[in-house]
Each structure stands twice: as C-alpha cells, then as structure tokens.
TrEMBL record, chain A:
The keyword Transmembrane applies. The chain crosses the membrane at residues 35-57, 77-101, 121-140, 164-190, 202-228, 248-273, 285-308, 320-345, 357-381, 393-415, 427-449, 469-496, 576-599, 605-626, 657-679, 699-719, 731-751, 763-790, 811-834. Gene3D superfamilies: Cytochrome c oxidase, subunit III, four-helix bundle, Cytochrome c oxidase-like, subunit I domain. One of its GO terms (biological process) is oxidative phosphorylation. Its main location: membrane. This is cytochrome-c oxidase. Residues 574-832 form the Heme-copper oxidase subunit III family profile domain. It comes from Lutibaculum baratangense AMV1. Belongs to the heme-copper respiratory oxidase family. The keyword Zinc-finger does not apply.
C-alpha cells in the first residue's frame, strides 16, 4: 500500500512539472504526446478533405462525357488530391505517429527538441492552410502534384496557382526537415538506460533510416521549388530551354526527392508492422539483424532509382536497361522484411485480433502493389502504360497498402494507449471489409482501364472506348471505400469516448510503450527503466510496477526540472541528463513570423516578406538565447542506486550539437543538388554557351572565399581559446569571424551584381546568382552566429566546460568555408573545363 | 617457414601474370612495354594487348614484396592483399588497361577496380604496417578514421578531376601525367579506404561518408549518362572500332560509375552496418557505468 501511495504522489508531482497550462495556454504545448496527437488529428483532417476531393473525381469520371465539374475545377481537384494526400496527410501522419510513439518506445520522457517539433507542427498547419484555402477559393494549383515544368512555369501557368504549391509545400517541408532532425537525434541520444542500438525496437531503426531519408531527400525538392519560384517571380531562367535552362532538370530534382519519398512513406508503415507483429504473433521478431540491414539497404537503394519515373522523357536506352535492372534490386530488401514477418507469424501463435485483420489487408494489398511495381520497372511495359490509369492503380496499391493499412492496424492497436479504452471490434470489422472490398473494387479494375489506354488527368472521355464500365465500377468501389473510412472514423470517435476501459498492456506486448498507465501520462515514465534485453516487458515482467515505484532512473522531481536521460549512442549507457524546455509560445510565434514571410512572398509584397524573415530571425535568436546556464553543470543523483550524471547544459555533446550536424547534412544535400543543377544545365541544356561570361576583378571572389576562411579560422581560434580558458583571445576570434562573415557576404552579393549584366538573360547568369546567394546567406548567418556567441560569452553563458556555443560557431563556419571553396570552383573553373 | 611459402606464392602469382609474355612476343602487339596511352584497340586484338611497362610492373612487384616481407603470415590479411593486388594487375597489366585507353566505358570499369575493388581489399590488409616493418621501421597498429573527412575530400576531388575533359585527354596523351595520375589515384584510394574500413570506433561515420561519396560520384555518373554530347572526342575512333557511337560508349561509362559504383559502395555500407550491429551484440568488455544484470545471455 505504501508504495502505491508513493506512486500516486510521484504521478502528481511529475504531472505538475510536465503539464501544459489549460485554455489558451494549450497553444504553448511542447510535450511530444500533445504535439504528436495534433499532427495526427490535423493530418486526418486533410485526409478527409482529400478523400472528399477524390469522391468528386470519381463522380466526374463515373460516366462518359460527364459535365459534373469542368476541366478547370477538375485540374485543381486532382492536383489538390495528390498534393494533400502526399504532403499534408501521409508525411505528417507518419510524423505524428512517430512523435507520439518514439519516446515511449525508447523509454524516454520526451523528444530531443520539444520546441522544434511544436514549431514543425505550426509550419505544417499554416503551410497546409495556405494550400487548402487557395483550393477552396478556386485558386488552387492545377499542374498535377509533381508540378512538371514547363506547364507550371510562368508563361503556361500565369497567376498565383503554381506559387501556392511551391511556397505552401516548401513551408510544410521546413516542418518535415525539422522533424527529421528531431527523430534522428532522439533515436541516437534520447533513449533509456541500457537500451543498446541492437536492442532498440525495430521501430527505432526504421525511423532512423526514414528520418535520414527525409533529411537527404527533401532538400532537392526544396531547391527545385526555390529555383522554380525564382524563375516565376524574378525571371531567373532555370527551366526555360530558350534561355539555357532545361525543363527536365525539374523532373530530376523532383524525383530525386520523389523516389525516396515512396520509401519514406513505406518504411514507417513497415515499422508499425514490425512493432505489432511480435505481440500479435506472441513471438519475438525473427531476423532482427537481417531486417536492420534490409532497412539500410532500402534507404540507400532508393536514392539511386529516381530515373525509373522518367523512362519516357528520352533517357538514353542503355540507361533504361540499367535502371530497369536496378529497380528490381529493391525488391530484395523488401522481400527480406516480408519473409521475416511471415516467419514470425508462423513461429508464433497469432492472436486473431482486430489489428491482425488490417495486417492481413496490408500483406495482400502491398504485395499486389509490389507486383505491378515490378511490371512498370520493365521499360517496354512502362512505355505502354506510362501516364495511364494503370500507374494510378499501381501507386494507390503501394501507398494504401504500404501506409494506410498499417496505419489502420496501428490505430486499433494503439487506441487503448491514447484513450485508455478498447474498441469492441464489431464496427471495426465491418469497416475493414468495406475498405478492403471498396479499395480493390476501385483500383483493381483501374489496372484494366489503364491497359485499355485511358490516360490519367483527363477530365472526361468519349463513350464506347471500353472505358465506361471499368470507370463506373471504380466509382462505385470508391464510394464503398469512403463509407468504410467513414465507419472507421466513427468507430474511433465512439470508442474514444464510450469504449469499455482497457486493461494495461492489452496485447501483452514487449515494448516499453505499454509499461505505463493508459491513457499515457504526460511524463511517460515515473522513472526511466534500466532494460536488460531486446524485449523489456517480456524479460522483466515487473518493470511497469518498478517504473511507477521510482526504482529506476530520474524518479524524483527536483527544481521543477523536466528531466530525461541521454545515453551513449551505441552502448546505451547513461551519458547525461537533458533538461527539457517547458511550455512556451516561441514555436507558435516563430511559426507565425515564418507564415508572414511565405504569405507576403506569395502575394508579391516583397518588403513585407523581408520583414517576416527579419522577425523570424529575431525569434530564432530569442529562442536560442533562452537556452543555457551561467554555471557549470555539476553531477547530480540520477538513480536510487546513487549514479551521478551531469546535466546537459552547454556540454559539448548536448543535443544541440547533434541537431546542427544533421541540419548541415540536409543543407549539404541542398547544396549538392544546386551544384548538380548548375553542372547539369552547363553540360546538357540547349542554347549554351551563354552570350556573356562573368567578368569580375579577382579581388571579389578572393574576398568572398577568403572572408569565409577568415570566419572559420576566427571561430576555430575562439573555440580553442575557450577550451584553454583564454577569454580575450576568444572574443578576438569571434569578432574577426564576424567581420570575415560580413565581408564575405557582401563580396558574394557583389559578384553577380557587378559581373553580370542581366540575370534573366541566361541560365548561366541565374546559376551564378543562385550560387552567390547560397554563399552570401551562409556567410551572413555565420556572421550573426559569431556575434550571437560573442554576446553569450560576454553574458557568462560560455565556459571551458560549457563550450557548446563556440563549437557550434566553429562547425557552421567550417561548413561555410568548404562550401565557399566549392562555389568558387563551380563559378570559375567548372564553366572553363566542362564542355557544353 | 610460412613466410617462404608466401614468397613462393607471390612468385608464382607474378609468374602467372607474366606467363603469356613469350606467346605474345610472336604476335608483335604494339608497345608491349609501353604505358596504356591513347590507342585504338580492335576487337580481334584484345588478348594480345597486355602492357608490361616497367613503370607499372616494378612498383607493383615492389609493393607485393614489401608487404610479404613485412607480414609473413598466411592469414586473412594476406589473402585480402593478394586479392587486391591481383585486381590491380587485372586493371593495369591485363588487356583491360589498353582497352581503357580505347573506350570510355572500359576506362570506367578499370576506374572502378582501381578506386573501389582493389584499394578496398588492400586497405583491409592494412599494408602500411607491413610495408613499414619491411622497410625497417617499427610500426605499431595503425587505425584509420582520424583523417576520414580529408581522405574523402581528396578522393572525391580526384574522381571529378580525372573526368574533366582536358585532364582526361592529357592523362591519355602525356606519359608523365599518365603515371602521375594513376599513382595518385591508387595511393589516394588506398588511403581513402584505409580511413573508412580500419576505423572500428567510427564505423557509423564511415558509412555516412561512403554514402556521401556514393552520392557525388553518382551525380558524376548521371551527368555522363545524360550528356547529349561526347566529352572525350579523343576516344571517338576507339568507340567506332567497337561499333559503338561515342555517346553510347560514354553513357555506358556513366552508368558503370553510377549504378555499378553505387552498388559497390552500397555493399560496403551494408557490411559496415552489419559490423556495427555485430559489435554491439558482443559482450561489453570493461565494466560499464551501470552494472548490467546477468539475466540475458548477452549481458555480463
């Protein structure tokens, strides 16, 4: 009894520390449970909207020469359907599930950067709202969800429509990248004691690779969007063949993102499957290591296959043969995972519960999508069905099979976790059959529609082409499918409120997410467990009680701190204690100022956009200022056994360091895409060489590159001086790098300004301008960072122990210096040595 | 005694490589002792077209001898070195070498052997230690990883530099440039792979660095694949001798770098991931900060 009262008191104390104020204060929430659920709810809202749009599409196509909605509305609707489903439903839903589940599965109390995920949510919500609002007002984008140029370029899509897509989706992608960084750092550092990488739930491995793919895959699309927006807004011709651009470059940049995207969507679905299969089969997963290798292989292969979306654009035929073969390769790691799941199910005693039904739905639908995938990987077949409804059917089998069915299974599986209540099962079973039958009815016959030659994206068709009956069947099936989804949503709502109370751990699962009371408390774990094997709740049956009784790490509240363990990346040994931030409005304010920037740019009020960017910068700096401490961290008691761990503040290995590392990885991918684009245009686009060349005094590039090198050397000197305790030298180094940064930024801006007559005349000039802009921006940010760190030093936030900030300045400057040298090579050497 | 056996093996290997020499002397192929400079090798002449330039053969034999003298054991390292050395012989002595001066695509196959297969195998043998010992220096165990970033940059820069058209043609026309470039690339590649494969504490970093390398070399391959014009007109005649258009030849080259090269890097990345996991599963050797109970079979 005594221990139970104690557990209740601990619950009250922790809840107070980890809670969010009620009412308007909810807007300041940063807790991962809250933010994760917000992502899920918002993505479901967009799912419903996109679903309604798809019903309009099916209504229009149900009969021949239908005039239910005209071509203009139809174009907007199918574009919006694809865009919403891909960018505003699938990715955010994955992010929401991950934000909610990841800390609970890893045994931690929150993510590495709670405020960053809140910021990600607001960016997503505001960006998505811009797109949705435009669609509702009849100004939606209408060039298809992959926005091919030249259709989406200024002459063929005048007005605001394409801009809505480019700016709105870029806004949402900021969210995706910030969540990607969040996930990587959390998986690597923020786990519970003893959780070695090799013992991590497979969910962690899947999401680690997925997050890397987000970090590496989204930057090419962001770059493409920026370049196309620069072309549309200011006439810089990156994609205009008449002026040395190339519209195929857009396709390359888009599919550099788009092919990994397929796996960014599938891998989290597979992650959920791999988490649910062992408890439902009552058997540990078979082939853990093989699955991990398969996940990594899938991630890497997916970046090499983008060309297989472009078989018909005139790729050299030798290339087609290679990519056709390579496309088959990706079936191998996928097969490994499938066989591992099937083997686990065979080895165990599967419990035929509701989630299992949806799991079988996934197996069937996704395998069929995979089979048609192998078919379209064959070049001659692909030429036949390219841009027909066959591809539409294939894509829906893959995406609905790979993501939606696993998510439905997961919804039933984790519903008790979120609500504390259990579904009764009946309505869920009916919903499954409606969805399963409706889906196959809609999309199976659509293969035939496509084989009979019906192109996608046409708003109507003549009668008598053999398309009438299949289309009608698809439309009927589509409505059955919608009824199924409506039943599913109803089931969720009903049992959220009215279901019978669920016992703890209803599935007898092995993972730590079920080691807590349900619905989940805000702080997750009364004390952070020390685990001794890969299936903690099976290995340590008493773990739940021990956690609540505070027998493990960080069971006591002190100083009102939100504490969670950070561990050694590989071994899982406790490393330090992260002090998590509490509720704050900063993410919301930052989201709003970012929204001002994007909305003003959209409306072409550029001074206002500059104001928005400036305000955002101020908020970011205020955000960064709110961190840190003025005294060196001292080791504090971390467990009843008396282990001592330091707090993270200012430590060189703090999460912020890792965050910057992975942000720079994303940045490097954007930069690599820019370099690729420039070289691509130079060697492949028509109408080269340009009518003029860059003519500047060698002093300017010397100043630009030299300024960045000085910036780096200054920041590096400051870092070393700080570690040696020499404060004067530290200040000098930072001031030097500050001036180096501003000199370099000015020189970078001057290069195209002075050396080129007309940036809009040729892609060469536009490319030089883009490279110079990249360099200027990084030097400028570097200068601001140096000034910021110098101020922090003066205020006493930095010491030889709290060296994080000098290290961050040094890292940023190191990256900038390397980039500046590469920019110099690209500007002055590449055009001279590469033929055009 | 094992050392002698190894030297004997090496001698036999070298003899095997040189065995076709007398037979070829009668066929009078042009410049058997010369470097593989620009040439037009026709399909019928391939098997006569070996190249035994002393500038290449002598360094190869010296390297082999140094390694075997410094590492007198028949173990995995020796096997790795011999395999890597054999691949170098295939790339630099076998007809592939002359073919590489005829076709861009053959050059790229040779390039993959020179920059990926051979140096990766040789790096696994940790030749630096053995050669230093053979040369009379006391060599401790050399672990890589410290200069991983620099090695990756140097390696990447050389890959791009070689394929700049002016450099490419100079390497095929000028003997000094030819030798310098090949030597530079082989040394840089062995260094690159040593830094990446012999860094037990930085395997994850090595995997990331290899991923970046696969990405940028893939971009170079993509550019060669998609380019609408031939970059290396010097080799047009060679391509036509093989009934390829120069553009086809270049595209195959690009695809070899992009897809085959990418697959090779991928293979190493997956193996590294595997090693990271296997190391993890091994018992912890020193006392950890938290005592792990002996419940599982894996804890200690």
């Amino acid at each position: 009894m005594k221990s139970e009262t104690e557990a209740v008191e601990r619950h009250a104390r922790l809840s107070k520390v980890f809670g969010t104020p009620p009412g308007l204060g909810q807007l300041s929430a940063v807790n991962h449970t809250t933010v994760g659920l917000r992502f899920i709810v918002a993505s479901l809202f967009f799912f419903v909207v996109a679903g309604i749009l798809s019903m309009l599409i099916r209504a229009q196509l149900a009969t021949a020469t239908n005039d239910f909605i005209g071509p203009d509305i139809y174009n907007q609707i199918f574009t919006a359907h694809g865009t919403l489903m891909m960018f505003l439903f699938a990715i955010p839903l994955i992010e929401g599930f991950t934000l909610y589940l990841l800390p609970k599965l890893l045994g931690s109390r929150d993510l590495a950067f709670p405020r960053l995920s809140a910021y990600g949510f607001w960016c997503y919500l505001f960006g998505g709202s811009i797109v949705l609002l435009a669609v509702l007002l009849g100004h939606g984008p209408d060039s298809g969800w992959f926005m091919y140029t030249p259709l989406s370029s200024e002459p063929y899509s005048p007005g605001i429509r394409s801009d809505i897509w480019l700016l709105g989706i870029t806004f949402v992608e900021i969210s995706a990248i910030s969540i990607g960084v969040e996930i990587v750092v959390t998986i690597l550092k923020v786990r519970t004691a003893g959780m070695k990488l090799i013992w991590m739930p497979l969910f962690g491995w899947y999401l680690l690779v997925t997050a890397f793919m987000i970090i590496a895959g989204f930057p090419p699309l962001i770059l493409g969007s920026i370049l196309l927006e620069l072309e549309r807004a200011f006439g810089l011709p990156f994609f205009d063949p008449a002026r040395g651009g190339d519209s195929i470059l857009w396709q390359h940049l888009f599919w550099l993102f788009g092919h990994p995207e397929v796996y960014i969507i599938f891998l989290p679905g597979a992650a959920l499957i791999s988490t649910m299969v062992p408890p439902l089969a009552r058997h540990p997963i078979i082939g853990y290591t093989m699955i991990v290798a398969a996940i990594v292989a899938t991630g890497v292969i997916s970046f090499g296959l983008w060309v297989h979306h472009m078989y018909t654009v005139g790729i050299p035929h030798l290339g087609l043969a290679f990519f056709s073969a390579a496309s088959m390769l990706v079936a191998v790691p996928t097969g490994v995972q499938f066989f591992a799941w099937i083997a686990t199910l065979f080895a165990g005693r599967p419990a035929m519960k509701l989630p299992m039904l949806y799991l079988f739905g996934f197996l069937i639908v996704f395998v069929m999508g995979g089979l048609t995938g192998v078919m379209v990987a064959l070049v001659p077949f692909d030429w036949q069905v390219h841009d027909t409804h066959f591809v539409v059917a294939h894509m829906h089998y893959v995406l609905v099979g790979g993501l939606v069915f696993p998510m439905l299974a997961a919804a039933y599986y984790w519903l008790p976790h979120v609500s504390g209540r259990a579904p009764s099962g009946k309505l869920g079973v009916y919903a499954f059959w409606f969805i399963f039958i409706g889906f196959n009815l809609t999309f199976f016959i659509m293969h035939l529609t496509g084989l009979r030659g019906m192109p996608r994206r046409v708003y109507t068709y003549e009668a008598g082409l053999g398309w009438d009956i299949p289309n009608l069947v698809s439309s009927v099936g589509g409505f059955i499918l919608s009824i199924g989804f409506a039943m599913f949503l109803m089931d969720m709502l009903i049992y959220w409120r009215l279901g019978r109370l669920s016992p703890r751990n209803p599935w007898k699962a092995d993972t730590l997410d079920w080691a807590m009371p349900i619905p989940s408390p805000t702080y997750n774990f009364g004390s952070q467990p020390e685990i001794t094997g890969p299936n903690p709740l099976w290995n340590q049956p008493d773990l739940g009680r021990e956690i609540a009784a505070g027998k493990h790490y960080l069971g006591e509240v002190r100083n009102g701190w939100r504490e969670t363990l950070a561990v050694d990346v590989v071994s899982g040994r406790p490393h330090y204690i992260i002090l998590l931030p509490g509720p704050t409005y900063l993410p919301l304010i930052a989201g709003l100022t970012t929204a001002i920037f994007f909305a003003s740019f959209l409306l072409k009020v550029y001074w206002m956009a500059a104001v928005g960017a400036g305000l955002s910068l101020c908020v970011y700096l205020a955000w960064a200022w709110a961190n840190g401490a003025k005294t060196d961290p001292v080791p504090v008691a971390a467990s009843p056994k008396g282990d001592l761990l330091p707090t993270h503040t200012g430590l060189p290995q703090a999460p912020g360091w890792w965050g910057l590392v992975f942000t720079l990885v994303a940045d490097a991918h954007l930069f690599a895409s820019l370099i690729f684009g420039f070289i691509y245009l130079k060697t492949i686009a028509p109408n080269w060489p340009p009518p003029f060349v860059l003519e500047v005094s060698p002093l300017l590039p010397a100043l630009a590159i030299g300024g960045c090198l000085v910036g780096y050397l200054g920041a590096r000197a400051a870092r070393l001086a700080n570690e040696a305790g020499r404060e004067g030298m530290r200040a000098i180094g930072l001031v030097v790098s500050y001036f180096g940064g501003f000199a370099a930024a000015a020189a970078f801006v001057a290069i195209p300004w002075v050396g080129l007559e007309d940036l809009t005349a040729h892609a060469y000039a536009a490319g030089i301008a883009a490279l110079a802009g990249y360099g200027a921006l990084h030097a400028l940010v570097g200068g601001i960072i140096s000034a910021f760190v110098a101020t922090r030093c003066a205020w006493g936030y930095v010491s030889p122990v709290r060296s994080l900030e000098t290290r961050i300045a040094s890292l940023w400057w190191g990256y900038t210096a390397v980039a500046a040298v590469i920019i110099g090579i690209a500007m002055f050497i590449v055009p001279a040595v590469l033929p055009s | 005694m094992r050392g002698h056996r190894m030297i004997a093996t090496a001698g036999l290997t070298a003899a095997a490589a040189l065995a076709p020499l007398p037979a070829l002397a009668q066929a009078e192929p042009p410049g058997l002792l010369e470097l593989c400079l620009a040439t037009v090798l026709r399909p019928g002449e391939v098997w006569q077209a070996w190249s035994f330039s002393p500038w290449v053969v002598v360094p190869l034999l010296v390297a082999l001898a140094l390694f075997l003298l410094g590492h007198r054991r028949a173990d995995g390292r020796t096997a790795a070195f011999l395999a890597g050395w054999g691949v170098l012989v295939v790339a630099l002595v076998s007809p592939l070498c002359r073919l590489a001066a005829t076709l861009v695509s053959a050059h790229m196959a040779q390039f993959m052997l020179l920059t990926i297969v051979a140096p990766a195998l040789i790096a696994l043998a940790r030749p630096g230690e053995a050669m230093a010992r053979a040369a009379g220096f006391r060599a401790g165990s050399i672990t890589g990883g410290r200069w991983m970033g620099l090695a990756a940059v140097a390696y990447g820069a050389l890959v791009w530099l070689w394929h700049a058209p002016t450099v490419y043609e100079t390497v095929l026309l000028d003997p000094t440039a030819h030798l310098a470039m090949f030597a530079l690339v082989v040394v840089a590649s062995v260094w690159f792979w040593s830094e990446h494969l012999n860094a037990p504490k930085r395997r994850a970093q090595a995997a990331l660095s290899l991923l970046a390398t696969a990405a940028h070399t893939g971009l170079l391959g993509a550019i060669l694949t998609f380019a609408p014009q031939s970059f290396y007109p010097l080799l047009s005649a060679g391509a036509e001798a093989w009934q390829l258009s120069p553009l086809d030849d270049q595209q195959i080259a690009g695809l070899v770098m992009w897809v085959v090269g990418g697959a090779l890097y991928l293979l190493v990345i997956v193996l590294l991931a595997w090693r990271i996991l296997s190391d993890e599963a091994a018992p912890i050797e020193h006392a950890p900060e938290i005592a792990i109970p002996t419940a599982g079979s894996q804890g200690r």
